[in-house]
Amino acid sequence: MQYKDYYKVLGVSRNASDQDIKKQYRKLARKYHPDVSKVENAEEKFKEVQEAYEVLKDKEKRQAYDQLGEHWKSGQGFTPPPGWEAYQRQHDATGGRRFDETMEDIDPRAFSEFFENLFGQRAQAYQHAQRQQRPHRGQDQLSKLDISLHEAYQGTERNLRLQEPIVDPTTHHVRHEEKQLRVKIPAGVTSGQQIRLAKQGLPGVAGGEPGDLYLEIAIQPDPHYTVKGRDIYLTLPITPWEAALGATVTVPTLGGPVSLKIPANAQSGQTLRLKGRGLPSPSSPGDQYVLLSLVTPAAKTDADKALYEQMAKAMPFNPREALLKT
Amino acid sequence: MPKTETGPLYGIVIEANTLITLDELCRVTSIQRRQVIELVEQQLIAPQGPEHNPDAWQFDSSGLKRVRCAANLLRDLELNWPGVLLALKLLEDIDELETQLNILRRN
User: Fold this and answer.
1) Dihedral (Cα; A146, A148, A150, A154), 10-degree rounding
2) Residue A210 and which of A164, A308, A326, B71 are 20 to 30 A apart at CA?
3) Do B14 and A184 touch (CB under 8 A)?
4) How far apart are CA A104 and CA A141, in angstroms?
């Protein structure tokens, strides 16, 4: 496993006060929390911050961490010093934690191997469960999956790679194992949708069932469409004559181009609905909304300008009339 | 033994319309029963099922996502409960506004 420099992660000195540590944590949590942050890789960064705080905010854990010494560098290969297991056992006893319930009581957050082995309680919980010889259900796992809008429309198959914290049954050492799953995503999933894969979570103990895996789908931004639930929005540029006279134009949809009738005297910003052309669903498929955007061709030549001037003379019209009325 | 030596892959067909019970929700999110009940009372989530019988409630994806968010805000940002309720509402508003903005921006 790799050493983690928690002081460096939080950006505090090794003799920082509890106050300072809390302040720094709050600042970084606000900055990187995945539910509120727009920073790239926020989730990764937040996990690091979270883990660092988990250790440094706890007096006992911080003390134990400090005793490992100052000479370690982040990422450096590391093995727990002799006597560490005794510390953990003592911590377990004084902490008064009981594992009568299930493995699900363990903090479900995905901490590093370094944390799991030195400060986590997964190994103890596992051992308690083993000793009791009662089947314990494994923990549920959470994972996010990014897909494109087109994949959401058609459905897709994807390979998932997950990291699982596994307790070795003999050494009780916790290590991360990679698990690969191939999943079929059905057509019509929406962003934020949670999909449950039964029994694909962490393994149970003493013959207990594994937990479930929850996948959260995130539809990535599309260059042309905006998605809202099952509905999709497309901005469609049209010419002044198409707007004024009406026209039948070809419009892209997720399922291929379709014909759309623009009514005469259409205005910029007007919305037309293509029913059922959004994300599919057996009961209520989404719609595609087309927002008309009037684009005026540039008056490049004298002839162009003459045409526009003719139009101005022939169709006197002041769109600002209502605006300037006192 | 590492599971990825031969990289076994297996196909799983997914139920897209997962509904889960109150107990399952609490287990997955580590949030307390009474807190979920309050989220329902505050109309921040709307489970299916009879109003006065929480044990018969069924939560869909949006419910799960929101409860998970509440659990995260409580734990990670150390918000108090009223703060969590406010934050959830504001986050929802922001989401809505951003979608609108995206739609209009392309004009």
Assistant:
1) -10
2) B71
3) yes
4) 11
Q: Between A and B, how many residue pairs show a Cβ–Cβ distance under 8 A? A: 102
B3, B5, B14, best to mutate vs chain A, most A CBs in 10 Å: B14
**Closest residue of B to A51, CA-based?**
B76
Q: Where are the alpha helices (DSSP H) in B1-107?
A: 22-29, 33-41, 61-76, 81-105
Q: Are B72 and A33 inside 8 Å of each other by CB?
A: yes
The shortest C-alpha distance from A259 to chain B (Å) reads 21
Contacts of A272 in chain B (CB under 8 A): none
Q: Give, rounded to a whole angstrom, the gap between the first and last alpha carbons of chain A.
A: 75
- Measure the CA–CA gap between A183 and A177, rounded to whole angstroms: 19
Residue with tokens 């450096």: A76
Cβ–Cβ gap B30/A184 under 8 Å: no
Q: Give me the tens of pLDDT residue by residue for chain A, a chain 326 residues long.
A: 889 999 999 999 999 999 999 999 999 999 999 888 888 889 889 999 999 999 999 998 999 899 888 888 888 888 877 777 666 666 654 344 554 445 666 777 888 989 888 888 788 788 877 787 888 888 888 888 999 999 999 999 998 888 888 888 888 888 899 988 888 898 999 998 888 888 898 888 888 899 899 999 999 999 999 999 999 999 999 999 999 999 999 999 999 999 999 999 999 999 999 999 999 998 899 999 999 999 999 999 999 999 999 999 999 889 999 898 86
